[in-house]
Amino acid sequence: MKIQIVLDNIRSCYNVGAILRTAEGFGVEKVFLSGYTPRVHDNNLLPHLREKLDREIHKTALGAEDMLDIYSCDDIKSELLKLKKQGWHIVGLENNIQTNKLLNLNDKALKANLSDKVVLILGEEVHGIDYSLHDIIDLFLEIPMFGKKESFNVSVAAGIAIYGIMNS
Hints:
Layout: E1 2-8, H1 13-25, E2 30-34, H2 47-61, E3 70-73, H3 76-85, E4 89-93, E5 102-104, E6 117-122, E7 139-142, H4 154-166
Parallel strand pairs: 1-2, 1-6, 2-3, 4-6, 4-7, 5-7
Helix pairs in contact: 1-2, 1-4
């Protein structure tokens, strides 16, 4: 299975770094950074700002940021539509949403609902995936929770979701 991930509007450099490290560990093919997600090695920033972001991301990525194919994307919706035309299945990781396109990560029907090429979208830490992307998402995944909290940290959720998708 091929997996690409989108980090859309992730606020924390530490979350970005942790997700990059996890993505590299699972062999993710490509990572898209979109919205206001902090960019690694961003030549559009002043050198001192780029160095600061790179240093913050590196604290949790531990070098994975230099091992992955990372693409900075200004128009993620257009990019996702292109990927869809190329046969990629667009999957959003969400919780607490009402849609008939929602499957639990441990649902036995998951495998039948995924292709062998998946783009996993991870949205902003508190508010989730931007609503402007919901109409192009083929399937939403939800991680089952058994405690009192309603969500996992986005970097933890990324690892759980990637593992779940790969082993569905």
